[in-house]
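User: Last request for today: this protein with 7TS, please.
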Amino acid sequence: MAVTNSNGAIRGFDVQAIRRDFPILQQQVHGKPLVYLDNAATSQKPKVVIDALVNYYTAVNANVHRGVHYLSQEATADYEGARTRVKKFLNAVDESEIVFVRGTTEGINLVAQSFGRTNVGEGDEVIISAMEHHSNIVPWQILCEEKKARLRIVPINDDGELLMDEYEKMLGPKTKLVSIVHVSNSLGTINSVEQIIAMAHSHGVPVLLDGAQAVPHTKVDVQALDCDFYVFSGHKLFGPTGIGALYGKRALLEAMPPYQGGGDMIRSVTFEKTLYNDLPYKFEAGTPNIADTIALGTAIDYVTSIGYDKIASYEHELLQYGTERLSEIKDLRLIGTAKEKASILAFVLDGIHPHDIGTILDTEGIAIRTGHHCTQPLMDRFGVPATARASLAFYNTKEEIDALVEGVQEVLGIFS
Ligand code: 7TS
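Assistant: Here's the final one, the structure of the complex with 7TS:
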């Protein structure tokens, strides 16, 4: 969709107006304007999301699904309204396919413990990739250890792209699940998920996509993708921490046993036999995170009101600009140079530890993340212990990238 004017500006996208929606961006850090470039760790929250939280506790607070009184019914309607928003956001078939979880990590653990323990046995295989976050490695290691199954790792090239030929060779009758990141948090690589899914499905293998870093940047349509499971975290999508969603195809979720037992997930309980509730409640034991779920719904409304076509165009421009500017710096090596990339500028400087880069940038009010970004095997693949990572959101500007580049020059000056 054409979203740019003749002068290259994105029609209807006013970054300064958007920045005013985010109270935290107005503040100074160490006497300098905050330059927040740690969005892959967590994104900032617009005022509407903060207001939704305050409003819930000020005017609505009650437990859901179990009260006949007014507030409980209001809280239930708002909570279930958020589920409808997530359903539309991902284009799921219906609300029963949307399970609220604490975040991506819990969503993957749910699938590993419920689908995995039911369907993966001795000698079976689960496929992940070399660029996974620890939360898409460790749950599968735990499962494979318990079941004496084998974890297979799709390798990557030096640009940080999956080797699809190797992936294809791994698929076979022993494969029980493929679990792959949609967009890498450490490299920014956008994986060819349509192809990954089609190849797995040709062997009858279901696919889970870790969408933690995808949903802040790109429209996701689970029906068009035909993925079997999709997980994301609200806090990376301009919503609160402690809430996320797991999408699963209804038939798969129906066949899976509960992950946790307790209130709300049951239809009836006797000491002899418990009957479980319908989807999605079968997977939502206990009082849920009501306030944050409702505010996640507000975050989704906010992002979709800006529009993913505009967000993607603007962020693409920023990423290109940042890549060009950082590439001009001698002794800087970008980690993650895939052709299809989103919003991550990770780098190392010759002979300078990334933590020193982060600490010096902080004195300039610039927030980046340094470390292994919960992807230690990926750091090993690139032969570095850590990287410095600037991660972008649609409220960032070219001026902020200029500030980052100046900060990096300052670091080089100090260490020269
Ligand atoms: N998967 C990916 C791709 C991620 O980037 C993260 C968090 C997770 C899973 C886990 O999400 P959580 O919300 O359950 O913690 N990534 C990062 C990061 O890059 N820096 O801090 C957290």
